[in-house]
Design goal:
- It is built from six helices and seven strands.
- By secondary structure, it is of the alpha+beta class.
- The chain folds into two domains: 72 residues, no CATH class; 112 residues, Chitinase A, domain 3 (Roll), CATH 3.10.50.40.
- Strands 1, 2, 3, 4, 5, 6 and 7 form a seven-stranded antiparallel sheet that branches.
């Protein structure tokens, strides 16, 4: 670990006891030197607040004083290096522990999200008019439509509303008062498949399982990993590619 880090750490730790409690020492901050010193102290203190190190402030102060004054040191260089290596290992272990906890929390949330989507798909499959396709996409025709049916190379103009299985709307062209225009093959697989089952002038409802949506990835603040997505779509226009 960088030795300079420990120097700054020691300086910051010495400042902590002096600044604690209800009494405040009157410190002037007027000259450039004082301003720089205070700003550096705040910066070091901010870094220190994020550290997991558990240290004895009085002993840190003694080590800094002995080193600066040239006094005999209470530890050998080898013992000090071993102590600093131990601190580094402890801090790395603590960081790994926090990362593992975050991973476990994310996995638990994803499992919960997947379970909610699976239950929704099972219930939705029982509804009249809902077709569950081999891919797992559930498709329901609301209005049949009489115009052309898009292919994967076509561009479509649609109005749509996207929801999570709990009813949270994560996207809506209706809210923007503007239809969306995009290539059929430029969207998530389940949505692309569903669009190709529609006809111009038609309206449909799609329930897209996570493996046909964003899988274990997060998409924006609302679509969590493992989310099942629900879309209502109006096919306004199908633009065939130019020959």
């Amino acid at each position: 670990m960088n030795r300079l880090f420990f120097v700054f750490l020691a300086l910051a730790l010495m400042l902590v006891p002096a600044c604690s409690g209800n009494q405040k020492k009157d410190v002037k901050i007027e000259t450039d030197k004082q301003k720089i010193s205070y700003a550096l102290g705040v910066d070091i203190g901010t870094s220190l607040s994020q550290s997991a190190a558990d240290l004895d402030f009085a002993v840190v102060a003694k080590g800094l004083s002995d080193s600066a004054s040239g006094a005999d040191l209470a530890m050998t260089p080898e013992d000090m290096q071993a102590a600093l290596s131990k601190l580094q290992q402890e801090m790395q272990a603590e960081q790994q522990k926090r990362m593992q906890e975050q991973i476990e929390q994310m996995q638990a949330q994803m499992n919960k999200t997947i379970a909610a989507g699976k239950a929704y798909l099972e219930e939705n499959a029982k509804r009249e008019g809902v077709k569950t396709l081999p891919s797992g996409l559930q498709f329901e025709v609301i209005v049949e439509g009489e115009g052309p049916q898009p292919g994967s190379d076509d561009v479509v103009e649609i109005n749509y509303k996207g929801e999570l299985v709990n009813g949270t709307v994560f996207d809506s062209s209706y809210d923007r008062n503007k239809a969306a225009v995009f290539p059929v093959k430029g969207v998530i697989p389940g949505f692309s498949e569903g669009l190709q089952l529609m006809k111009e002038g038609g309206k449909a409802r799609m329930v897209i399982p996570p493996d046909l949506a964003y899988g274990d990835r997060q998409a924006g603040p609302e679509i969590l990993p493992g989310s099942t997505l629900v879309f209502e779509v109006e096919m306004l226009n199908v633009k065939k590619p130019s020959n």
